[in-house]
Every structure is written in structure tokens, then in C-alpha cells.
Amino acid sequence: MEYLSLKQTAEKWGITVRRVQVLCSQGRIPGATKIGSFWVVPKEAEKPRDQRVKSGKYIKS
Known about the structure:
By secondary structure, the chain is an alpha+beta fold.
């Protein structure tokens, strides 16, 4: 399996490196692995859907 660095993944998906780090630490990218202090993402991984609330309104459950 081939892996990409956080920087390569961020460029591929059009988001910041920090956002990719957050997605990895939250377990939202299947197959993402931490090697030492660095995250690597499988080359075939798809960008997860953005679940952050952008409208300023919180969804009541």
C-alpha cells in the first residue's frame, strides 16, 4: 500500500495540513497511520465529508 504525507494529502484535497492532522487524529480517514510522530494517509483514501457547523446554528439532537 502506498502512503502520502500530510502535505501531499492536503494539496491533493485542497485543504490545510492542520485540517488533515485533525481528521487523522479524529479517526475520520480510514487507514491513516501514525509512524513515530508523523501521520501517513493511504494514497487511495477519499476526503471525508466536512461535518463542521458553518451556519452558526447548532443542530439539536
